[in-house]
């Protein structure tokens, strides 16, 4: 997440320390995503598409429903508090700006 990396880089004077902090903060979340993606490999996706009648034509899938969700996602992200280099939760080495 770019804002977490930016926060780590702004907080630390040493690049290696900043990257190590970023890795510590984000590794578990990223590992969970990687493992979840491995569970649903390309073969399973192709099989599911075939079970549902193959490729869907435009206008017959979930795309329209998901497009409607975009404003809610933007609003959710924009409602998160900003992380600053000094003061507040940003001083906690274990805090996660991505929350």
Poorly predicted regions are none
- Per DSSP, what share of the residues sits in E-state strands of 2 or more residues? under 5%
What is the C-alpha radius of gyration, as a whole number of Å?
19 Å
Outline: elongated
Number of strands: 0
Mean pLDDT: 75
Provide the structure class.
mainly alpha
What characteristics describe this protein?
99 residues; mainly alpha; 4 helices; 62% helix; 0% strand
Structural commentary:
This protein is mainly α and 99 residues long. Helices cover 62% and strands 0% of the residues. The protein is built from four helices and no strands. It has helices at residues 2-11, 15-39, 42-51, 63-78. The chain is elongated, with a radius of gyration of 19 Å. It starts with a helix and ends in a 21-residue tail after the last helix. The relative contact order is 0.14.
Helices and strands in order, then pairings?
Elements: H1 2-11, H2 15-39, H3 42-51, H4 63-78
Helix pairs in contact: 1-2
């Amino acid at each position: 997440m770019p804002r977490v990396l930016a926060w780590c880089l702004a907080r630390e004077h040493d690049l290696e320390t900043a990257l190590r902090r970023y890795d510590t903060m984000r590794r578990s979340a990223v590992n969970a995503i990687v493992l979840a993606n491995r569970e649903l490999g390309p073969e399973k996706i192709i099989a599911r598409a075939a079970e549902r009648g193959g490729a869907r034509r435009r206008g017959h899938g979930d795309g329209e429903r998901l497009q409607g969700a975009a404003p809610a996602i933007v609003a959710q992200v924009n409602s998160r508090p900003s992380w600053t280099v000094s003061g507040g939760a940003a001083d906690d080495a274990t805090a996660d700006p991505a929350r």
